[in-house]
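quick one if you have a minute, typing this from the bus. theres a chain ive been looking at and ive put its sequence and its fold in token form underneath. please have a look and point out which stretches look like helix strand or loop to you. anything you notice is useful, everything is just below.

***
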Amino acid sequence: MDQNCIEKNKILITKLQEGSEKAWREVVQKYSDKLFGYALSLSFDHSIASDIVQQVFINFYEYRYKLKPQYSMESFLYKSVYNKFITHYHQNKSLTRLHEQYYSILEQQLSNNSNEDLSKNIDKMNSLINELPEKTKMIFTLKKKHGLTNQEIADYNKISIKAVEAHITKAFKLLRNKVENTKE
């Protein structure tokens, strides 16, 4: 980065830290299309790329007081997009496996039973869900019955996403074991 760019970077960061709306608009206008293109090249999905860029700008705005004027803002933003993509990728990879297990169990139940049996099995499954440990039951219910994302559940319960995933995995494992034990 040449000396002129370094000075502009320092001034812009200083203005951001002072709360300048004009400086914020300048950053968003200057980098939003570039970051969106980069996120799109990573995710190949317009919606995901848009969400990533939006989240990066939100985090950047919240983090602006900690920015060091001597470091490149552009590098920081690009690295943030990359890190958000990696986090998103790992979350979806875990979710895909969990959903496959969930649908496999449901499919097994549907294919093996008549409509009357299906109603009984749904009641039985709800009963088994109610037997789960309290925290696991609550998280599983928020995920599967209310459709909340892992991030929303984590934020609501003030726990990590990994903890949410662990509870959901635990719920599937316990439910699968209980279903298999009731068949024997």
About this structure: The helical segments are 3-17, 21-43, 46-63, 73-111, 115-130, 134-144, 150-157, 161-183. The chain is about 85% helix and 0% strand.
